[in-house]
Amino acid sequence: MKRTLVRYRNSAFGRYVIRNQKYAPILFFMGGFIFDTLTLGRIDRVYDTVVLCSHMTLLSITLYLYNTVNDDKWEGTFIRRYSEYFPLAIQFFFGALSSAFVIYFFRSVSMSKTMIFFILLVLLLFANEFLKKKISNKYLQFSVYFFISFTFFAFMIPTLIRQMNTFIFIISGLVSLGCTLALIRFIYRSSPGTRAEISLKKLMSIIFCIYITINVFYYFNLIPPVPLALDTGLVAHDVRKINNEYIVTYEKDQWYVFWRKHNIKFHRQADQRVYVFTSVFAPTDLKKAIFHRWKRYNPETGKWEVTDDLGFEVAGGRDRGFRGYTYKNNLEEGQWKVDVITEEELVLGVVDFVIKNTSESYKKGMVKKTF
């Protein structure tokens, strides 16, 4: 093994890698993110589940080894010889898991207040590239580990048990908290070096602060209701169901408006219905009631007023999401929006539009699409 390493280091390729090793983390980061983007799709797929569980397990093991490697029990072992690679391994698993969660959350997040949590995940993803020099800080290590662990169980437990509600979220948080505290306690008792370096009370306080913060985010609906995700949401002139396919007629927006399919200005004739069509992804066998909360902006009060909550049930398993629609008659001109929400009023997405009354049928930009 040593001879192989020596030959590698003395080769032209080995010397090139050594000269440019400062660029290795960013290359691994980009490669890992691209790999996750191309390979991770459905959270309920066996492949995705195995990959995420493997990353989480290996991260926990690597954290244990890294924090105990300087103790006498590893003296003379291969673990001690290759301990210099543990920080890179930890960084890799942090990056792999956070990039996976960014991919999954990107499907779930809407351009609403849930964007805040998504931005935090993205910041964590990019901050991971700057953790290499700070990874020896055990307070930072376990803080990031707990945040990732909480997110992992918030995804995985609802997917595995086919249920999603506030109680399941609380259970997910408690499981994550228990696993993290158990790992910290195990490392603390196993490693004299760790006991000398950290205050267990301080570390526990940080973990509990993160736990409380995430739950506060959930209480104020700042966390997308994963693993549910809004695949499609648009306002339409007509929706018809034919042979289990939905034929949706709507005004298409300009080509450069990539974040929205429909024209935000809805041209409505007298007595014409206004439809809102949504497609919601849910893992296989997960059933959930979804509501369309219709709101109108009152310019006199400057507030959004709820006019109706119209619901339908989601049954998971379809790749392109479970489809459903609601409609209303006699809508007034002005700003409208429909919040796509769960029973717990967690926001899956928001469909915005402005009603413009017209005397004649509006044809410009009108398209029909099958969902």
Description:
It is a single chain. The chain has 371 residues and is α+β, with helices and mostly antiparallel strands. The protein folds into two domains: 2-219, no CATH class; 229-370, Immunoglobulin-like (Sandwich), CATH 2.60.40.1930. It has eleven helices and eleven strands. A five-stranded mixed sheet has the order 4-10-9-6-7, with no helix packed on it. The chain has a three-stranded antiparallel sheet with strand order 1-5-8. The chain is elongated, with a radius of gyration of 25 Å. The relative contact order is 0.11. It holds the Pfam family DUF2914. The chain crosses the membrane at residues 23-43, 49-66, 86-106, 112-131, 143-161, 167-188, 200-220. Residues 288-355 form the DUF2914 domain. This is DUF2914 domain-containing protein. Keywords: Membrane, Transmembrane, Transmembrane helix.
Question: In short, what is this structure?
Answer:
The chain is 46% helix and 24% strand.
